[in-house]
Write a structure and sequence with these properties.
With about 120 residues, this protein is mainly alpha-helical. It is built from five helices and no strands. It has one domain. The protein is elongated and about 55 Å long.
């Protein structure tokens, strides 16, 4: 079942923008991380610390899910306003407020169309 919204084109543009910007931001943050190789324990601590590598890998995963929902609606995941709002809130907390805001606007458009 494919949900057709009145503003479907704008929702896809905003959601796709959120996914692409999320991937770009997370990739650039991973690229800018400088690891120190004193010993194995400090390396693991740097990788799994929340403000480091693990956070941005999780952000890349959520941004790729957003792109997957945008490009292939209802094939792996449903094209639904609730899913867009959930993924956008995750992106706001993981990546950046401005990146998740585009998906949040798209989910809000879908919510208003649903109501």
């Amino acid at each position: 079942m494919f949900n057709h919204y009145k503003m479907d084109r704008w929702m896809k543009i905003l959601t796709g923008l959120s996914g692409v910007l999320g991937l770009y931001f997370c990739f650039m943050e991973i690229y800018n991380i400088r690891f120190t190789y004193d010993n194995v324990f400090t390396l693991f601590e740097q990788i799994f610390r929340w403000n480091s590598f693990f956070r941005y890998v999780l952000g890349m995963f959520i941004a790729s899910l957003i792109l997957l929902v945008t490009l292939k609606p209802n094939d792996p995941l449903p094209w639904n306003w609730a899913l867009l709002l959930t993924f956008s809130i995750f992106l706001i907390f993981i990546c950046n407020v401005w990146i998740g805001l585009w998906g949040l606007i798209a989910g809000g458009i879908g919510l208003l169309d649903y109501l």
